[in-house]
Every structure is written in structure tokens, then in C-alpha cells.
Design goal:
two-stranded parallel sheet, seven-stranded parallel β-sheet, 336 residues, Rossmann fold
């Protein structure tokens, strides 16, 4: 019998890719959305859209009546904003959807967290058990609070949950990070930091979607958290050069030391706040911290417990991503 999955945040980057993957695997999808963003895309792939605010518990309760599983993707992922701007999507929204899912006797609740809950420090093969560094940014703090709510539902009530901690997600339909980075690389306006020597952990959105679905299906995943990346040992310099190669441009032509990157990020934030800007500065303390030290995580637990492995290799994933970016870039210029 065909099972139904309710996906919150389904109109976003990860959500749209996940919905498509679920439908391809013969699941029915209830796409929980706040408005008309990517309406046509979701309807064409066969998802049933339900417009619902995450604060409206009556609406959530009604939407959950036909669901067997819930995948909680909704959240604010940003390096800019105060704590209150993250509170509803990353904590209170998680709480509402989780509590209504418990009332609806959902078979499994999968929450999309982030490795950002580990904080910034020297991460090399960091596992789900740590290390955990001080959390200096509202995004990291609220994602940690949201995950704690989810895992506590299992510890205190034996409700079947799993938390997924993605690393740096990229791929088709990423109008945020990849779109901005690719545009900056094309303009040669982004430098390396410390020569790009620090490790990073990219994860292709298709590989992430596969891991999420496995976590939903596997009984062994109940009560557990899993870090998901492409499982590579790759530096920022190597990552940037792969993007540049796919774009057909030269790599960054200069480098700045880490201390200067941190100073620039802090200074730009200071002036943005001083002038009351609602928009983030072009470079922030968060971004500086991420590229100024190793940010590498182990996926051994996911491989061992879920039987997961990244199916799409980095070269194929980057090629698909940049092909999509070029089409979107030309569309933004009105050329297609």
C-alpha cells in the first residue's frame, strides 16, 4: 500500500529535491507550504500542496490526518538575524509539528537539523557525539534547541524520531549559497582564506535526500542522529576549483589571512547593524568562522546503521549543479 509523507518546508531548496525523490520512490507527498513559492514545480511533480502556517496547530492537525510519516525540513538557515527571527521556524515550529505528529500517531518523524549545532572549532572527522564548541550564532543555537526537542520526544515518550545533521548542502535549485558563490567566482570577487587550506564537508542534495528517506524507512534509525556529507576529505581550495572548472573560469586569484577575514566579517556586520540594515552584509562572522578552521565531519555512523552511501560523485553533482546555475543565471538576465 502506498504510504504518505508530509514534508514541511517543501518549497525550499532541500524540500523540493526531497519531494521529487519521494515521489520517484512511489510515496505520496503532502507538501506543507506557506505560500505559492515553487507552486508549479511541486504540482507538476505530483505533490499535494497544503498551505499552512507552522504556528497554526489546527491546520497542522488537519494536514497530518492523511500522513504516515513526517519529514520536518522547515527552518530559517541564515548567517544573519537576531535570535527572535530564528525562534519560530527553528524551535516553536518544530515543537508544534512534533506535538501534533505525536497526537496523530505518525509512524516516524524525521527532523532536519544541521552540523552547525556542533559550533565552530577544529572539526576533523567529528562524529555525532562531538566535539561540540560554543554556539555563537542564533542559527546554531536554535537548530540545537530544535533537535533537542525532537530527540527528547523519543527519550521521554518513546515517539519514533530521527535527526539528520547535513553538512554544507549544494545542488540544483539552490538559490541561496551556490547561486551567490558561483556568481562571485565568475566575477573573481571572492578570495581564498588562508590559501583555502582548511577542510570542508559538502553534501549534494540528492545524496542528502537518499539518506533522509533511509532514516525514515529504517527502524534502526529511531532515536538516533546522523551526520550526512559526501564523505570526502576536501579543502576549500579544492572545492572552489571544482566549481570554477565547471563554470569555465579561473580560480580565486588572491588569498587573505584568517584573522583578516574574521575582522572583515565583524566590521561589515557592525556597520550593517549601525545603519539598521535588514539585509546581510556580503561577508559575515559566521562565514568567516566556517572558512577559517577545519569543518569536516564523519559519515561512518550513517553508512553503518543506515547502509547509506553517497550515490552521486562530486564531479557529477557539481556538473549538474552548475548546469542548473547557468540556466538560472541566463534566465535572471532575461536571455532565456
Amino acid at each position: 500500500m502506498q504510504k504518505t509523507v508530509l514534508v514541511s518546508g517543501s518549497s525550499g531548496f532541500v524540500g523540493t529535491n526531497l519531494c521529487r525523490r519521494l515521489i520517484d520512490r512511489d510515496y505520496k507527498v503532502i507538501a506543507l507550504v506557506r505560500g505559492d513559492h515553487h507552486k508549479q514545480m511541486l504540482e507538476e511533480m505530483g505533490a499535494t500542496r497544503v498551505v499552512c502556517q507552522i504556528t497554526d496547530t489546527d491546520c497542522l492537525r488537519d494536514a497530518l490526518k492523511k500522513a504516515d510519516y513526517v519529514i520536518d525540513v522547515i527552518g530559517k538557515a541564515s548567517d544573519w538575524g537576531n535570535y527572535n527571527s530564528f525562534l519560530i521556524p527553528n524551535v516553536l515550529g518544530v515543537k508544534n509539528l512534533l506535538e501534533e505528529s505525536m497526537r496523530a500517531d505518525i509512524k516516524k518523524f524525521v527532523h532536519i537539523s544541521s552540523v552547525a549545532i556542533h559550533g565552530f572549532g577544529n572539526h576533523v572527522d567529528t562524529t555525532e557525539e562531538g566535539p561540540f564548541y560554543k554556539l555563537d550564532f542564533p542559527y546554531c543555537v536554535t537548530k540545537r534547541e530544535g533537535e533537542n526537542l525532537v530527540l527528547d520526544a523519543y527519550r521521554k515518550h518513546s515517539f519514533p524520531v530521527t535527526s539528520i545533521r547535513p553538512c554544507n548542502v549544494y545542488g540544483v535549485n539552490d538559490m541561496g549559497v551556490i547561486f551567490k558563490i558561483a556568481h562571485a567566482l565568475m566575477n573573481r570577487s571572492v578570495p581564498h582564506v588562508d590559501g583555502g587550506k582548511w577542510l570542508t564537508s559538502p553534501v549534494y542534495v540528492g545524496n542528502l535526500a537518499d539518506a533522509i528517506i533511509l532514516a525514515m524507512e529504517k527502524d534502526e534509525a529511531v532515536g538516533e542522529a546522523f551526520i550526512i556529507s559526501d564523505g570526502l576529505r576536501i579543502t576549500w581550495r579544492e572545492w572552489d576549483l571544482k566549481l570554477c572548472q565547471a563554470l569555465g573560469v579561473k580560480g580565486p586569484w588572491f588569498s587573505v589571512p584568517g584573522f583578516l577575514a574574521r575582522f572583515i566579517g565583524a566590521s561589515l556586520e557592525f556597520f550593517a547593524k549601525l545603519f539598521g540594515s535588514d539585509n546581510p552584509p556580503p561577508f559575515t562572522r559566521y562565514r568567516a568562522r566556517q572558512v577559517c578552521s577545519n569543518y569536516h565531519f564523519s559519515v561512518e555512523k550513517a553508512k553503518r546503521v543506515l547502509g547509506w552511501k553517497p550515490e552521486t560523485d562530486i564531479d557529477t553533482a557539481v556538473e549538474k549543479t552548475i548546469k542548473w546555475f547557468k540556466e538560472e543565471y541566463l534566465r535572471s538576465l532575461g536571455k532565456i
